[in-house]
# Entry
Amino acid sequence: MSQSTKRYIDLVYGPALKQPEKIAVACGDYRLTFQQLHERIGSLGSAFRMLGLIPGDRVALLADNEPIHVELQGACLRSGFTLVSLNARLTDPEIEYIVKDCSPAVFIAGKQYADTVRRVGEKCGVTRLFACADGGGLDSYEDLLNSAEPDPDLDPIDNHLDALILYTSGTTGNPKGATIDRQAMTARIMGNAMEMEIGTDEVLLQNLPLFHISCFLFYAYLFRGATCILLPTFDPEKALSIMQKEGVTATNGVPTIIAMLLDAPNIDSYDPAPLRLITYGGAPIDPPLLRRALARFECGFQQQYGMTEAGSVSLLKAGDHDPEDNDALTSAGCDAAGYELLIIDENGNALPRGMAGEIKLRGPGLMTGYWGLPEKTAESIINGWYHTGDVGYRDNRNFLHVVDRRNDMIISGGENVYPREVESVLAEHPAMIDAAVIGLPDPKWGEVVSCVLTENAPSAEELEAWLRERVAGYKIPRRWLRVPELPRTATGKVLKVQLRELFGSSRD
# Structure
């Protein structure tokens, strides 16, 4: 079957035809060419069918950034199965919740997770358990893959078969499985390939986890025939060494990762000459950090604002990253190709530029819904529009500014306080390290603006004085709390639900 007749995106089919001997995926000393990857994907799909799997069945994976992600996703796309990519940082009870929710036919462990997959799989009644490495008493993934010959280039007719289920990070409650069908996945990957102008001569270093929506960035490079290097877990010194040694032209990160790269001991010896693009997102980035990064890496930067349910929906492109343009640097740019974003009030009416309201959107990468939760799906997707729960506004240039999560907004004494606004001002303080602003119950004010600081942050008195010159009085925190470090998701988002639980709020 020719590439042009495929009804879905095949991650490696085209590059395997055009450049079969080129390295597709590298992880440490392990290397796979596009042809080898193409064959392994074919064998894996055939092996799953020998086990009795049919289109629509789920295959769960618990792994760090390893080539198995690519093999499983490729096989699922080609044969009509659904990959459930689990966050490797979850605890056993959290993994158990997801496995029970999606009922996978197969559960596969990456190199470090055989014991976890065995414990959880047996408890949840999953009988087909495999591991990429010895240990845990599980069957061998390599033996499974080698048990079958590569299949022909299959293409199940139904393009709306689910290709991937990604569970939300759980910042506002229990995780929900966002289902992405083959059509939406194709749109997300091809959209990223176009927006990032990916060439076949690129070398990508994938810092972000593949169990997150950053997988679509990774697959876009693979689809274009680029060489993709995986870091099993992020280490800033190792990342910079790889970037130098391999001539990396593109990489990605969240603000935390960018900060760690800039502060790495070997940053002064790094020559950024080959680097073309750094893509970032996952959490807001403060202008001082972004200016440091722009000056040091001397390459293009692209911000992607998105979510599990819809992919990357708004972009601040490289040409808009003017260090002197603070309004641009604090924005999420303009709508990505194929997407339409609107700002609405509580009654669903569109708001004019400058007025903040909920962001709703529609586009080709939108999920089909939440796995097994039709009521939650109906609440979130109304007449084809996804209601994000994020609060934002448009400026005079039509740039989108994401103010905060609707669920994070604090109502104190009748005034609306957006934590992100306060956090951004705090981040400008010369000695500021890390802070999260949350609302906590208060008998007088309903909620009181509260700030959670790390232990090495400046004093509350110093920060209050800083804020008093820059924000309205009702926005200044009345409570100042300290923790050793802020709890975060794998992509750097602060888990405010944990902070509210820790300090006495249960509104989530």
Notes: DSSP finds 16 helices and 27 strands in the chain. The two ends are 50 Å apart (CA to CA).
